[in-house]
Amino acid sequence: MTATSHTSADTPLSYEQAGVNYDLIDPLKVAAQRAAAATAGHLPAHGFQEVPASRGESAYVVDVGPFYLASIVECLGSKALVADEMQRLTGRSYYAGIAQDTIAMAVNDLITVGATPLVVQAYWAAGGSEWFKDAERAQALVQGWKAACDVCGVAWGGGETPALAGIVEAGRIDLAASCTGIISPKTRLSVGDDLGPGDAIVLLASSGIHANGLSLARKLAERLPDGYLTEIEPGLTYGDALLAPTTLYSPVTEALASAGVKLNYCANITGHGWRKLLRHPKALTYRIRNVPPVPAVLKFMAQQARHDDREAYSTLNMGAGFALFVPAEQAARTVEIARAAGVDAWVAGSVEAGPKQLLVEPLSLRFSDDDLQLR
Amino acid sequence: MTATSHTSADTPLSYEQAGVNYDLIDPLKVAAQRAAAATAGHLPAHGFQEVPASRGESAYVVDVGPFYLASIVECLGSKALVADEMQRLTGRSYYAGIAQDTIAMAVNDLITVGATPLVVQAYWAAGGSEWFKDAERAQALVQGWKAACDVCGVAWGGGETPALAGIVEAGRIDLAASCTGIISPKTRLSVGDDLGPGDAIVLLASSGIHANGLSLARKLAERLPDGYLTEIEPGLTYGDALLAPTTLYSPVTEALASAGVKLNYCANITGHGWRKLLRHPKALTYRIRNVPPVPAVLKFMAQQARHDDREAYSTLNMGAGFALFVPAEQAARTVEIARAAGVDAWVAGSVEAGPKQLLVEPLSLRFSDDDLQLR
C-alpha cells in the first residue's frame, strides 16, 4: 500500500490507491457510533424505544407502537464526476440516471430492515448557483428523481438545494437523499433475529457498478488511452456502462411482502462488495454454490485493475446488487416474484451452522469476519 | 446589483453581491416542487396520505393513521468556512458549535409543523479522508453533535461520512442533517389551518446570526482590516460572535406541548430574515409592536454592510430566531414557558385581518407578499 500518485497500466490498482483511506475515517466512525448509541435513551421519554439490533444495520429503526419507523441519509459518492466527464465528452446529460443512483443509495439501504419507503428528501448541494444554469442537466436531475420515486412508490417530500461555493467545488454537485419509511406489520422487521442455518441466499441482479467502486473506476479511466470512450463491448463505452443507473430494489421487497414471503435478513451489496454478505454479527457460514453472471463493465474493471477474483468480489458487486436471506422453502418463489418485478434473481446458496465465513465455492474463495469490520 | 468582485468598505453590500444568486436556483426549485407534488399520489397505495398544507412548509408531513410523520433534510451552509478560518487564526476548534448549528437547521425546521423530533441522521461529507486526521476537530464534531441531540431529546440514528475528493473541496466539509419526527397527538399539527386574526406573535430570541447570512458575514470580514479578529465588543471578536451556536428551539415547543399551549403556526426565521413571518399563504396582516434587542454581531454586520433597517430585517434574524403564532390568551404563558426552558421570548405583536403584509411599527417597515416568494 504505497502512496504513489501515478500507476502504470500494468500495475494492480487497489481501492486505497484509488483515493479512499478508510483508516483515517474509521476512528471517527467508531467515536460517532459510540456517541450515537448513547442517545437511544432519549426515546423512552417520548414513549418509544430503538430497535437495538438496527444499530450497525443499514437503517436505524425505532419502535413507535403500531409499527416501526426507519430512517436513513445516504450519499451518492463520486459517480457524478463520471457523469460530468461523459457530458463533456458526448454532450449528453446523465443526471436522470444519477438521480436514480442517489435515490437507490437511500432506498436500497432502507429496505434492508423490512421498511416500506414512504418519503424521500433531496439534498442537492452545488458548488455555486452556476450549476443550475445548465437547464437540461437540472431538468434531467428533477425528472430522474421523480421517475425513481415513481418506481419506488415513494413521496418526494422536498429537500435542500444550497449553493455552497467554497465547500463544494465549482461546477460540481454533492448529491444525497434521506428516506423515511415504516415497517408494518411489525413482523416485516428483518434485522436478522430469525436469520439462521437452513436459510436460502437469493441474490438479485445488479445493473452494473451501481454507485460503489467509482473511485477505482475513475482511476482506471485515467489509464485507458481512450478513457471513458473505450469500447468494452461493441457499441458500449466504458463511461456509458458505468453510468447505468443503480437498480431500485424496493419493488421486489414490496412484492415479496405482499406475497407473504418472510425476509429473515437482507444485505445491500455496496462498498466492500460481497463481504457485505457477512454483515450480520451472528456466527454463521454462508455458502454460495452459484455465482451470477458478471456485468461486462465489472468484468472489464477487474481485468484492467488486474484484480483476482478475491479482490474483485471484495470490492465490487460482481453482478449481485442485493442479497435476500429467506426460509429455504420460499427460495424458489422469491426468485419468481423478483423476476416478475423485473429484477433477475438466483438461489445462490444457503446459510449453515459454522464459523462466520463466506464460501464462494465456484471461485474457491473464503472470506472471514476479519475481512469485514463494519461495526 | 452589479457583478463587482471587489467592494470597498464604504459600499453597501447586498446578499446577491455576497455570492448567492437565487434567480438561478429558483427555476430548478419550482420544477422540483412541481415534480415532488406529483408524487404524493403514491402514498394512498400504502394506506396513507400527505398533508397537502405541508407542501411549501419547512417539513413534509404524512398522515400515517395514529399520528403524523414529519421529515426533513437540511444543510448547514457556509458557516463551517468561518469555523475553519477561526481555527487557523486561534488554534481552537469550533466544530462542537458547528455540529449544533447543523442539527438546529434540521430540528428547528422540523418542529414548525408541530413535530417532536425523534431521530437525527448525520451527513458529513469531507473533501478527503485527510479531514478526519485532525482528531481534536473530529472529536468536537462528534461531541457537539451528541450534545445537541441530548438537548433536543432526539436519538442519533447514524449517518454518512463520505470522503468526496473532487466534489467537496480539499480541507472542507459539507455538513447536513436529516430529521424524522412524529406529530402526536394529531392536534399538534401546526401548518396554519387555525392561524388567524387575533393570534399573538411570540418571538423567541436568537443567539446571533445562527446559520443564515454567513455569505454576507464572510464578505464583510474580507473588508475589515483585522478580519474575524475585529473586536465588536470588548473581549469579543467578530469571528467568535459569528460562531455562537444556533439556538435549539425544540425544548421550547416540547414544553409548550406538555403545558397544553396550542401553536397555530410557527416560522423558523432563517434565510430572508423577518420576511419569513409572511411564510403562510393566508392573506393576513402581521403587526409587530415590540422589536427584540439586536445581538451585537447583527448590529455590527448591519452597520458594516451599510444596511438600513429594511435590508437588515429582510436578510438577518435581528434577534428573533423563531416565531410562534398562538391564541392571544396563551401569549403570556408562552413567554413564561419559553423562558423557563432557557430561551428568552417576547409577545411582539399580533395577527389581524387585512392584506398580506408584515408591519414592523417601531421601525416603520412594511413587507408585502412581493417581498417573499418562497413557494
UniProtKB/TrEMBL annotation, chains A, B:
GO MF annotation: an example: phosphoribosylformylglycinamidine cyclo-ligase activity
Domain of life: Bacteria
Catalysed reactions, semicolon-separated: 2-formamido-N(1)-(5-O-phospho-beta-D-ribosyl)acetamidine + ATP = 5-amino-1-(5-phospho-beta-D-ribosyl)imidazole + ADP + phosphate + H(+)
GO terms classed as biological process: 'de novo' IMP biosynthetic process; adenine biosynthetic process
Pathway in which the depicted protein is active: Purine metabolism; IMP biosynthesis via de novo pathway; 5-amino-1-(5-phospho-D-ribosyl)imidazole from N(2)-formyl-N(1)-(5-phospho-D-ribosyl)glycinamide: step 2/2
EC number(s) reported in the record: 6.3.3.1
GO CC annotation terms, alphabetical: cytosol
All copies of domain PurM-like C-terminal, residue ranges: 196-356
Residue ranges annotated for the PurM-like N-terminal domain, each copy included: 57-183
InterPro entries: PurM-like_C_dom, PurM-like_C_sf, PurM-like_N, PurM-like_N_sf, PurM_cligase
Alphabetic keyword roster: ATP-binding, Ligase, Nucleotide-binding
Protein family membership: Belongs to the AIR synthase family.
Name the UniProt record assigns to this protein: Phosphoribosylformylglycinamidine cyclo-ligase
Organism whose genome encodes this protein: Ideonella livida
